[in-house]
């Protein structure tokens, strides 16, 4: 007798109930899901909502009972749709993910707001708490010195990992504001009905907006996308972080006394400057990128200064201006008599107000390039602002001096007139090729002319926007000291005989396993080079070294790469300390775990002794930029947490813990490095691996997505992975629900050690190992064996498929044994809930993607690709990225 089919609502309801969501988040998910359902009924084709519900129920059923029959039933539903219906279903699930992601983000914001001001469960979880803990170890004086020297330097990149269109991101931001309005407004009245109507309208717009771009963005489009983050959050958020730290350190005195915290955030950008493998980034683009960034920050400073000025309605009788302010006013009014007369008329007897309003005119003149009035550099504006600040203090008005005026000063100190320092990156091989051309003589190629023009562009940006605006030059695939010396040789060619070189800090980027091991020797050699040594002396022996996570992981596997990076950092840090060099390590991390992703604060605390020393610089890209900096509350929490981790990393207790753990578990590390690398090579060096990889994942198709301006590969053929960029390598494995780039080889490595007790001790005592295990647990939680098997079956290589599946099972087994509990992420219930909530919905998209990929792979070689099938695949790729919240 056949068993009765489960009631769809029972299946869905049980699954959602099991996730134990906070009630307000559950209400948001329910409301947004209900409104999406209404949109699908109204705006989709006939029967769309019912088909979406059929597939949703089937994938939840398959997820909860894990029987082959349930999985086959869900797959059959996905196969049954017409291409047109499959297209709509994919877009519906993608919309749902955007809405769930929004609900989760709003819940994070609620939690942050509720915690604001409450005692922290982790005293080192905030910068103020970390400072107090550090002072308890090393004393107030040394702790204050370290706080004053703190540096957090995120560098935004245009690496193509953001699968959402900007139009989609904008729609989601509007939806987020509407959900906020529901939170803040009264329930049950006209206001709630109006907000709900606006939500419905916006969800309908999101549904009707194509999830994928028709054309790749141009580099300047990418610049403007990053500028939106600055305009929406960073400009006002960063000084608020400083204020909150100051309040925590000074209590009620904050805002009426000189600040106890110095600006510690510096923003960098590769957007419009990174030309490694991107022919669309030219010297002309770099100039324009710097101009756009400067315009945005000067607009921001103009508005902020105007607000401060308008508020300084302090009469001379109560707040007499100093002689320096009177001299400042005289200078400003002489330079711009007409404006001064107007300002004086509006500010009678209020010289502080008048002076600041005239500074607004000078900022505007700087933006519009009015040479008679413009500032030459931000230090001149800072000097004028501090003149006003000192006068206010002397006149007995410290609250006005250290209130909004101080926040304006922090903004100038942080962003200057350039907003973000534009960094240039180029491949060492390009430099060698161009130098060969120059030394041969004759007419230069277009590439050589462009390489030389870059140095002229750097000089222009420095002259126009200040020396901080540009000057860091990263050399990809640095393999010798000559690779670094070549940059200055090219700069001399660019400026010509007798020309003035731009200020250049040449930064090596060590990426491959071999290059990481060779790094200390290369650095020792280059610091003896006369020009390099001269620049070191100019900077007070400051040196920056970049470490590449992506290529090293693709080179030897994630486990060996993690251990190699730790060892390289340790050796470089020891080398720098011996030579009294102030080292800043620049971490080229991606968003996905196969590229060094994962929580930044735990990664920082796990760094080797003296490799942080109060300074942390890293790349931020794609979806990570918007996840960490797109919302004001989340951005403040992120910056505060990272600042805390930077201070904590350099605490003697933390350094001792890392040092002793590394020594104690050195044999474990050695065994893991060797066995994981051998296991990784067994797979990737197998005959035919590269074309097999291209067949069992949507690797080729990922390159068709208009994610970013940079090509996905460096002249790759499917016969070789040597030139495949790390982003599509990671992205493709993620899409196949395998995530191989984040964990492959770890199971074999742990089994080779074999001692579960010892490994559990390592998890407790060794921060690097704990971070690795936790990150792998997160990565594996987003995999799915059954769907992975379907992808791997496309390759007709049972041997390679077995290697992947066996290693996945072994790694999962060992991670659970080490962490404890009854499954992955048992020690991280919030994250586990989020993964379980969305996994069945990702499964639905994966089944539809598989259907399209299978059709493309089975089509005769000599036939044209079906554009509707290809579109379905790309839509599903975008949807899976939204569901997993990871791409590259």
Structure description:
It is a single chain. With 888 residues, the protein is mainly α. Among the domains are: 8-119 and 166-209, no CATH class; 662-884, no CATH class. An eight-stranded parallel β-barrel has the order 1-2-3-4-5-6-7-8, surrounded by ten helices. The two termini are 49 Å apart.
* Unreliable residue stretches: 1-5, 592-597, 712-718
Number of beta strands: 8
Could you give a short account of the major beta sheet? 8 strands, parallel, barrel
How many helices does DSSP assign? Answer: 40
**Beta strand %:** 5-15%
- Name the helicity range: 55-70%
Structural class: mainly alpha
Sum up the overall morphology in one term.
Answer: globular
Q: End-to-end span in angstroms?
A: 49 Å
Strand order, main sheet: write it out: 1-2-3-4-5-6-7-8
Radius of gyration: 29 Å
Average predicted local confidence, pLDDT = 89
List keywords for this structure.
888 residues, mainly alpha
Summarize the structure.
By secondary structure, the chain is mostly helical. Helices cover 67% and strands 6% of the residues. Among the domains are: 8-119 and 166-209, no CATH class; 662-884, no CATH class.
């Amino acid at each position: 007798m056949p068993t009765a089919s489960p009631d769809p609502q029972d299946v869905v309801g049980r699954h959602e109930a099991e996730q134990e969501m906070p009630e307000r988040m559950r209400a948001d998910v329910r409301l947004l899901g209900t409104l999406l359902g209404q949109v699908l009924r109204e705006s989709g084709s006939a029967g769309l909502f019912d088909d979406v519900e059929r597939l949703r129920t089937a994938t939840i059923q398959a997820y909860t009972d894990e029987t082959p029959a349930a999985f086959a039933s869900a797959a059959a539903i996905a196969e049954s749709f017409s291409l047109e219906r499959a297209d709509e279903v994919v877009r519906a699930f993608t919309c749902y993910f955007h809405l769930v992601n929004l609900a989760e983000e709003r819940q994070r914001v609620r939690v942050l707001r509720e915690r604001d001001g409450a005692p922290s469960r982790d005293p080192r979880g905030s910068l103020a708490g970390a400072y107090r803990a550090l002072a308890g170890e090393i004393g107030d004086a040394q702790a204050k010195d370290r706080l004053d020297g703190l540096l957090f330097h995120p560098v935004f990149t245009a690496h193509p990992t953001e699968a959402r269109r900007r139009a989609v991101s904008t729609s989601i931001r509007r939806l987020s504001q509407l959900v906020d309005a529901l939170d803040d407004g009264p329930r049950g009245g006209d206001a709630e009905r109006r907000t709900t109507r606006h939500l419905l309208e916006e969800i309908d717009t999101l549904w009707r907006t194509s999830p994928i771009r028709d054309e790749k963005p141009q580099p300047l489009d990418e610049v403007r996308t990053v500028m939106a983050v600055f305009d929406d959050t960073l400009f006002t958020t960063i000084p608020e972080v400083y204020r909150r730290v100051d309040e925590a350190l000074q209590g009620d005195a904050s805002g009426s006394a000189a600040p106890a915290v110095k600006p510690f955030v510096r923003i960098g950008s590769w957007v419009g400057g990174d030309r490694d493998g991107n022919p669309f980034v030219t010297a002309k683009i770099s100039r324009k990128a710097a101009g756009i960034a400067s315009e945005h920050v000067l607009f921001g400073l103009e508005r902020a200064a105007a607000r401060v000025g308008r508020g300084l309605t302090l009469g001379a009788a109560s707040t007499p201006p100093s002689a320096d302010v009177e001299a400042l006013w005289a200078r400003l009014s002489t330079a711009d008599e007409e404006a001064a007369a107007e300002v004086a008329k509006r500010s009678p007897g209020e010289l502080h107000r008048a002076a600041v309003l005239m500074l607004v005119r000078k900022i505007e003149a700087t933006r519009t390039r009015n040479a008679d009035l413009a500032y030459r550099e931000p230090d001149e504006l800072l000097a004028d602002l501090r003149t006003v600040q000192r006068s206010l203090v002397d006149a007995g008005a410290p609250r006005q001096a250290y209130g909004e005026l101080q926040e304006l000063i922090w903004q100038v100190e942080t962003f200057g007139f350039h907003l973000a320092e534009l960094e240039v990156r180029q491949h060492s091989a390009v430099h060698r090729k161009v130098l060969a051309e120059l030394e041969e003589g004759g007419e230069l190629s277009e590439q050589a002319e462009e390489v030389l023009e870059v140095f002229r562009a750097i000089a222009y940006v420095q002259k126009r926007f200040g020396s901080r605006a540009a000057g860091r030059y990263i050399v990809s695939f640095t393999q010798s000291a000559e690779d670094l010396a070549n940059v200055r040789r090219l700069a001399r060619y660019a400026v010509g005989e007798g020309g003035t070189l731009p200020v250049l800090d040449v930064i090596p980027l060590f990426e491959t396993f071999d290059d990481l091991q060779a790094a200390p020797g290369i650095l020792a050699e280059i610091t003896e080079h006369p020009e390099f040594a001269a620049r070191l002396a100019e900077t007070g022996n400051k040196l920056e070294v970049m470490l590449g996570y992506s290529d090293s992981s693709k080179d030897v596997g994630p486990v060996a790469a993690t251990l190699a990076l730790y060892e390289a950092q340790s050796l470089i840090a020891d080398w720098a300390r011996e030579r009294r060099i102030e080292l800043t390590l620049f971490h080229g991390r991606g968003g996905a775990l196969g590229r060094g992703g994962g929580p930044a604060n735990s990664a920082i605390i796990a760094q080797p002794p003296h490799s942080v020393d109060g300074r942390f610089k890293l790349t931020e890209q794609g979806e990570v930029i918007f996840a960490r900096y797109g919302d004001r509350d989340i951005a403040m929490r992120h910056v505060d947490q990272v600042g805390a981790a930077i201070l904590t990393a350099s605490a003697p207790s933390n350094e001792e813990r890392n040092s002793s753990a590394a020594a104690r578990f050195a044999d474990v590390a050695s065994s893991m490095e060797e066995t994981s690398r051998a296991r990784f090579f067994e797979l990737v060096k197998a005959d035919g691996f590269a074309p097999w990889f291209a067949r069992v994942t949507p690797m080729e198709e990922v390159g068709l997505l208009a994610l970013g301006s940079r090509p996905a590969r460096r002249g790759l053929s499917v016969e070789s992975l040597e030139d495949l960029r790390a982003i599509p390598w990671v992205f493709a494995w993620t899409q196949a629900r395998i995530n191989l780039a984040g964990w492959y080889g770890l199971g074999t490595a742990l089994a080779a050690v074999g001692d579960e007790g010892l490994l559990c001790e390592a998890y407790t005592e060794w921060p690097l190992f704990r971070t690795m295990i936790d990150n792998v647990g997160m990565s594996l939680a987003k995999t799915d064996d059954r769907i992975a098997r379907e992808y791997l079956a496309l390759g007709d290589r049972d041997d390679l498929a077995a290697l992947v599946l066996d290693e996945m099972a072994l790694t999962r087994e060992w991670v659970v044994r080490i962490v404890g509990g009854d499954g992955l992420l048992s020690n991280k219930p919030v994250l586990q809930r989020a993964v379980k909530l969305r996994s069945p919905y990702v499964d639905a998209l994966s089944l539809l993607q598989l259907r399209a990929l299978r059709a493309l792979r089975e089509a005769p070689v000599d036939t044209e690709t079906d554009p509707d099938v290809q579109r379905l695949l790309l839509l599903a790729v975008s949807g899976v990225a939204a569901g997993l919240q990871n791409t590259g």
